[in-house]
Design goal:
With about 375 residues, this protein is an alpha+beta fold. It is built from six helices and 19 strands.
Amino acid sequence: MTADAASSSATTPEAKAPPTAFGKGFVRDAWYFVALARDVPVANLKRYEVMDEPVLIGRTRAGDVYAMRDICPHRAAPLSAGRLVEKPGEGETIECPYHGWRFRPDGVCAAIPSLVEDQAFEANRIRVRSYPVRESQGLVFVWMAADARAPSEPDHEPPLFPGAEGEVKLVEAMDFDSHIDHAVIGLMDPAHGPFVHQQWWWRSEHSMHEKAKTFAPRDYGWAMVRHAPSSNSRLYKILGGAPATEITFRLPGYRWEHIQVGAKQVLALTCLTPVTETKTRITQIFWSDHWVFNVAKPFLRMGVVAFLKQDGGMVNLQNEGLKYDPALIWIDDADKQAKWYQQLKREWIKSRAEGRSFINPIKEVVLRWKS
């Protein structure tokens, strides 16, 4: 037992989730996944919602991705319902479907068609909020600043994921009726598998083993350091050889498992994107150069969908209790990662408010639990 585990129990104040912090608010001044790059074609305008904000994602004919608030400042029509046009002296613009106001990809208004020549109105003084956007490893990320009136510029780049190389092999997404905080700790929870994910090809309630894993800090998060998968996790056996896996979490909502089997590798990335206070999009993306993905892809897809549906069903059950705003009891060591997430979130908010570098509060430790 670790010193931390020995010093706290389920009945101490430390074991309860802070009622005013957990399940409320978002991590801001951060990069959020919004789309696969291949789902943002040239001249296409697509609407997303991130943190209760409507976001238009598009791509210019030159291939550059851009993001702006999906509301025309004239009469509030969604700009994503318009079209990409190009006129002399204006360059490429997004034309509002209601009155034809045109906006450049940086959000500046280029033209108001209803104006006549002698009306002295400077259209370029009107702006739609634009968001910093990055395209990396075939993924599109949007920077969600803390202050919409004076948005910050990114001071770090989106994460780079090991093994995110070549063509994406498998993608599945589902919206959970959950605040991102609950989605994160559900994702990182090591003890629910035998009860929520009972599958003949995965594991059962009757195959519970004691686990002891080493965890270490990583950039804006932590990792269960590389290890051989547990013997009661049957799915790993189809990879053959001697798989070694490392599972990493990083703020604001990324969890990835990187598996090495000799010279081959598999990357399973889960991106959590807060749509609203009560809805979170879970996107699972897989890359691999292992032959199994070419042979067993339909079966793997069924497995991923089954996992998402099982987790989604449990979220709906959990909401039956959460609507009463109960205090939540977290125990060591099985719930340690939930506590870490809260510590990381608090430190992120505090470091941004104080204008200083983020200090990772997590230390290397061995955690033990049964699953």
